[in-house]
Each structure stands twice: as structure tokens, then as C-alpha cells.
Amino acid sequence: MLLRILHEMLHTPVMDILHHLKRSQGMTAGELAERLKMSYMGVKQHCDDLVKKEFIDTFRRAKGSGRPEKLYRLTRRLDPLFDENGASIALSLLAAAQRVYGETAAAKLLYAWFQAKTDTYTRKLAGADDLLTKAKMLSKLRSAEGCISSVQQDAETGALSLVEHHQPLRELAAEHDIVPELECELIEKLLACEVSRSVEEISGLVRITYRLTPH
User: Which CATH number do you get for residue 9?
Assistant: First the structure.
């Protein structure tokens, strides 16, 4: 992922800010300052500069009382930083397959691609026994492919979720609604558990949650 490479090459507060904003549904300057161990004004200065350059913008979030909070979020101008897995090429190829081989060709090709991806992941997860370990390993693999993935565990119930803040296959999913279903099936097979998928969109920011329930 380009953002991760840039982060390693140019370790600056700006790259850290972009990194944390991508992994969130918007953050205040105070939240960023706490996470980055920086001063509030230092973070705000960087954010205001990024707003002027249209790399990030702001929106308001209501609080229980008092004035709404101002949050920062990434803009579409930074989309090229994040992997899209050749979506435009894939869409063209699938469309061509449908024209040549019929309407079911695209679904068959997608199924075959996800099966091959499952096989590849299975080999890389070999040796992991428990669900938490496998989920963390899968999260790293999916993050490496641009999904901005992390594993979250409920403090009270211990329930596990795979949470992702970027969808490299977004354009494919928009054209072929079988894609989200195949992604769930992939995770179910790899982790040997039941998976339910939910999508939250807040002010243009997306969070995809895969809840993992042991059989």
C-alpha cells in the first residue's frame, strides 16, 4: 500500500495524521493529539494546512451537551494513496467475459478468484489454531492488500470482529453484488466460524465490520 510505504520513508506528523484518520470514522484535533502524543495546537496546525490543500476536510458530530465537535476526515483527493486492486481493469475484463460467455460468466470468474484467494490465505494461516490468532494473521494479510484491517475484541463478552476502513473491491462490489457475499464466505472458510457483515457510513466515511462467531 502506497500510504504505508510513504509512512516508512517519510515519518512525519502529517503521515501519522493521515494514517490515523484512515483508520477511523473521523477524529478531532484533541483525539489526534492524544493518539500521537503531540500538542493540540501542533496537530491543529498540521490539520488546518491539510484542509487548505484539500487533502482533508471537516464535519460536525453532535455531543450529548454543548457545541458539536469538529472532526477531520480524508477527502477523495487522497484515494490514489490506497490500493484498489486494479478495479477498473477487472471491471473491463468481467464485462468482456459477460459479452463473450454470457451473463453468468462474471460471477463464475469472481467465484474462481475468491477460491484461489482462499487457497493462498489458507497456506499462509497454516499452524494457527485459535480464532483470535487466525483473525490477527488474516487482518495483517488483508491490511497488506489495502483493507486497513484490525481485530477488535469486546472487553465484556470477548466477541471478536474484523474491522476494515478501506474497501479495495468497492468498485467491483458496486457492479457485482456477489462480491460482499464471497468476501464473507472467504472469511468463514479461513477462520472456521460464522461471519456477519455490516457497513457503517458516517459523513462519507466507511467502516466494514465482520463479526466472528465460533461454531
Answer: 1.10.10.10
- CA-to-CA dists, residue 133 to 64, 138, 154, 187, 191, angstroms: 38, 9, 16, 14, 10
Residue 99 C-beta-side C-alpha neighbours within 13 Å: 6
Task: Tell me how far apart the alpha carbons of residues 128 and 143 are, in angstroms, rounded to a whole number.
Answer: 18
The residue segments making up the domain with residue 138 are: 87-214
CA distance 8 to 158: 33
pLDDT value for 100: 84
Shared-domain flag, residues 65 and 101: no
**End-to-end alpha carbon distance in the chain:** 34
CA distances from 200 to 7, 164, 174, 210 (A): 27, 11, 16, 12
Tens of pLDDT, residues 73-109? 988 887 766 655 556 667 777 888 888 888 899 999 9
Q: What is the CATH number of the domain that holds 201?
A: 3.30.1380
Could you tell me which residues come within 8 angstroms of residue 7 by beta carbon, excluding any fewer than 6 positions away?
Answer: 15, 16, 19
- Number of domains within the chain: 2
